[in-house]
Amino acid sequence: MSRDANADKKKKRILKPDSVIETKKTKIQDGASSKDHESLLFHAEEEEAEARDAEQDVQLFKSACSSIRDNMKFIQGMKKQKAGAEDLEAKKIDVSLQFVMLKKLNRLAHFRCRRAREATNEAKQQIEKYHLQLQNLLYETMHLQKEITKCLEFKSKDEEVELVTVDEFYRDAPERISRPKITKEDPHQLTLARLEWELEQRKELAGKLQEAQLCKEKISQEIRSKEDYLDTLQPKLISILEATKPVQNYLKMPYDEVREQHQTARHLPLPLYVLYMQGSAYQQACDKYLRVNVEGDVNAAKSLSLEIPEPDDDSDSDQDDQDQEKRNSKRRRKTVEARLCDKKQKVICKHPLSVTMEISGKEGSTLHLTLSYLPALNIITVGVNVLPSKDVVTSCITGGDLLSPQSILDELYPGDHGETTPNPASQYELGRYGMGDFSQYVAQLGRPYIWAQWLGGLQFLESCELEGACCSAQVRPNTSVSATYMQQTIKRLRQRLKSRLGLLQQLASLERGIVSISGPVLKTFPVKVTSQLMSWKRVTHSDFAVLPHAKAILDAGFANKNDLYFLAILERGSARLSAHVVVSVDYPEVAPVFVTSVAWQTQRTAINDIHIKEMEEEVNVHYAELTVDKSQEQLLSCQLQRLLVCFDVYLETEVVDVSAPVEIPKEKVIPRVCRGPGRNKPYRYVPELAIFTQR
Questions:
Q1: Helices (H), 32-84
Q2: pLDDT (tens digit per residue) in 444-480
Q3: Quick one: pLDDT at residue 128?
Q4: What mean pLDDT value characterizes the chain?
């Protein structure tokens, strides 16, 4: 019975708020519609949540939970005892009412939480508002501080004016400006007065400056009048000098440098005289960058007999010894070895005078040639010196000998290396005294190039034509021969200097891994070239000769021992292309030859891969496409750039395993990967369409 009484009390406690709600509902129904009724009911719960004490609701929640547990235990016990259904139903109703109470408390708790969040947000917004106001105030404060600082640091224009000191101001300034009674007490008035005095002084100085300028113009006008007088005097002096020319000719007193040169040239041997006169005439008529001069000892040339008697084997006879002994009775007679040594020296003796030719290019580099004459051998030798301009890069490892005097003029004309004498009779003369081949004296005497003989008007018989002819016959210089070859030879010499300097620049760039191309020829290549030049080094002819795939080039005669050999390494991904480059001594008249091999998965050359052969053909045969608009000087770089492009095409068109990862992405626009029975690759680039196609 006690439990039922407690349950009734709880039920009354629970139902008490509901009765209040019912009362409020009745009031709402009397004064508003159903929608207003719901709104009022919702707000009634909010008001109830605010009016109720949260701590009491917590205690009520705990007591309700405890009552539910007790009732559940009681119901479980009664079910075991199989009690009456009425008692169980009462307990269930009590538990249900407790659950309703819990739901109501839960709603009230949610109302309180929402109200707390809203209050918190309102507090945050208020704090943010105050913080923003604080920031605005701080910004205004900072702005005001900056303005104050700016005002304090402001400097007026008068501060830049260097005024006289105060003592000097009061001493020099008139009283109407200085006003000592006012300015000594007021610093501002003092500054204004000093500025006024400064302005007064500057106006006075400006007037003096104007007077000085007028005086200067007057003096300048007098100077110009005197200069005009002197200018009119110069033509009179020139006319006087012209009038004295007959007197100068009569007295043989040359004042002109050209006349002095011509006077000296009279003592030149006939071949050098022909060379000098033809070179001077060509200089005056056609080539302003050519300088022809005569150098040497004029007195020695005057005393030297141009006719050298032929050495004779019988000159060592007793009769000659007796005559020599009579002429030099007081001197000791030379031995046979000493006389033979003197004769050998006479054979290779140069004439005291020589002709120098300075062939300059527009870029500033100069080729200095010293042409000497050997009277006993009747040949002209050449000494070479190259003077490059300051902007030319000469510190090149692979091309260090390009400007070497021993090799720069090799094969200026085909087959002319200047190592042997062009006069067959000279070799007989050397053999007569056991002096060996002329190549032993090249370093001492210079190189007897064939074109040097032509410039001197000398033309010699070939060895086959010399048979039966007199070996000691002297060839007379022919002026027409010199005139025929002068212009062509000068152009070739200048072109050789220009091409060697250009090749030197290219080699210096290639050593750094840069393929430098400029000008209109750049349009003949695609914009993007993925393959890279990894190294560039010098190799020898023997290194090139051992290559199996270079045998065809050697057999065809495209590679000689005098040529320059280089090795270029090109890479893209794991693919590696080795290109042996043969640069002729007559570059760029003779295009470089490329012999390649590719190391990619296997070793491939022109022997086992037809596409490598096509690549070499594209570079070696179709090089004329790269010599457009004076781009022949950079032919080597253009060919190497084309090889890089062809290497890209070769790798991108090569068939690879589909299952393997893509190592070489396809970047070129290639409509047809292969064509024809030979499955030709598209090495030819069409710049107008930016595509690659087959030839």
A1: 34-51, 54-81
A2: 888 999 999 999 988 886 644 444 444 444 677 888 8
A3: 94
A4: 82
DSSP letter for each residue of 388-425: --TTS----STTTTTT-TTTTTTTSSTT--SSS-S-HH
Predicted local confidence at residue 624, as pLDDT: 87
Amino acid at 183: T
Pairing of strands 564-572, 532-539: antiparallel
519-536 pLDDT, tens digit per residue, is: 888 888 998 999 999 999
- Whether 10 has a pLDDT exceeding 80, the answer reads no
Residue 448, preceding peptide bond in cis (omega within 30° of 0): no
In whole angstroms, give the CA distance from residue 280 to residue 689: 53
Inter-residue contact 445 to 350 (CB < 8 Å):
yes
pLDDT band at 83 (very low <50, low <70, confident <90, very high): low
Determine contact, residues 183/189, Cβ cutoff 8 Å: yes
Residue that the structure tokens 């091409």 belong to: 499
Q: If you average pLDDT over residues 199-206, what whole number do you get?
A: 91
580 near 565, Cβ under 8 Å? Answer: yes
Lowest mean pLDDT among 321-325, 395-399, 649-653: 321-325
Lowest pLDDT segment from 16-20, 274-278, 317-321, 572-576: 16-20
Other beta carbons within 10 angstroms of residue 664's beta carbon come to 18
Q: Is 589 exposed, middle or buried (0-12, 13-18, 19+ CB in 10 A)?
A: middle
Distance of CA 120 to the CA centre of its chain: 67
Q: Which of 632, 622, 620 is nearest to 521 (CA)?
A: 632
Say how many residues make up the chain: 695
Contact 534, 569 (CB under 8 A): yes
515, 645 contact by CB (below 8 A): no
pLDDT of residue 575: 92
Cβ contacts of 668 within 8 Å, gap of 6 or more? 526, 648, 649, 652, 692
Residues sharing a CB contact under 8 Å with residue 574, sequence separation 6 or more, in sequence order: 600, 663
- Look at the alpha carbons of 432, 434, 436, 441 in this order and tell me if their dihedral is positive or negative: negative
Q: Give the pLDDT band of residue 12 (cuts 50, 70, 90).
A: very low
pLDDT of residue 334: 61
Calpha distance 58→487 (Å, rounded):
121
Joined tokens for residue 173: 């300034």
- Alpha-carbon distance 527 to 176, whole Å? 82
Cα gap 348→187, rounded to integer Å: 100
Coil vs helix vs strand at 518? coil
Residues 87 and 12: their CA atoms lie apart, in Å, by 19
> For residue 373, what are the β-bridge partners?
380
Which 3 state secondary structure label does DSSP give 122? helix
- At position 444, the amino acid (one-letter code) is Q
Backbone angles phi, psi at 655, to 5 degrees: -75, 125
Amino acid sitting at position 323: D
Give, rounded to a whole angstrom, the gap between the first and last alpha carbons of the chain: 117
Question: How buried is residue 147: exposed, middle or buried, by Cβ count under 10 Å (0-12/13-18/19+)?
Answer: exposed
Mean of pLDDT values over 594-605: 92
Residue recorded with tokens 């109302």: 111
Residue-wise pLDDT for 125-175, tens only, equals 999 999 999 999 999 999 999 999 988 887 777 777 788 888 888 888 888
Q: Are strands 593-600 and 602-605 parallel, antiparallel or unpaired?
A: antiparallel
Q: Say how far apart CA 560 and CA 580 lie, in whole Å.
A: 14
- Alpha-carbon span 412 to 227, nearest angstrom: 55
- Of the candidates 298, 293, 456, the one whose C-alpha atom is nearest the C-alpha of residue 373 is 456
Return d(Cα 570, Cα 178) in angstroms, integer.
Answer: 88
* pLDDT for 316: 45
